[in-house]
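Fold this complex.
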Amino acid sequence: GAGVSQTPSNKVTEKGKYVELRCDPISGHTALYWYRQSLGQGPEFLIYFQGTGAADDSGLPNDRFFAVRPEGSVSTLKIQRTERGDSAVYLCASSQNYLHYNEQFFGPGTRLTVL
Amino acid sequence: GDSVTQMEGPVTLSEEAFLTINCTYTATGYPSLFWYVQYPGEGLQLLLKATKADDKGSNKGFEATYRKETTSFHLEKGSVQVSDSAVYFCALTSGTGANNLFFGTGTRLTVIP
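Structure:
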């Protein structure tokens, strides 16, 4: 079946602009996660949804970052007033439910470059 | 807080050599432990996992044992192949209700023929 998909695959923007990154999880997966991976580092957690609600947003670096999942499926990560330090690969993952030992399935990522 | 410390890379091995990538963790609860792999040009995928102490995860000839006494989850393979060349990430979920993965920095493995 279809895996996790993310669009766009690449996004180049200018400092100060607004961007939206989209994630389509595996059908039926109720848990959805966003991570950010900088060059040479492991992914870092941003936010986790169980259904439509953000169950844990403790990883969001500041209030420029916001994410939604209005119907419990597709999620959008929104970044306002982008800064050069936001440049990274943004990864989305989904899992069957909230249980901590469940496998998370990752999408291919969106590479964001802020000029 | 919860964290994972992973052996620095890069690691270069000849085909059929023995592989060990060290991973130790710090966690306040009863974590589940994972190894994820990222092959060139592909996304992260689960390689193996262990959810409680003394469990051994295994897949594709790779193994790792959850050692609570040494807080370790070292990845091993007896005979690596060129196709194993990838970046390997050790990770945990805390088991305290939070479900996000904490990742190590990754170890790049290159296997030469």
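The first strand of chain A starts at residue 5 and ends at 7.
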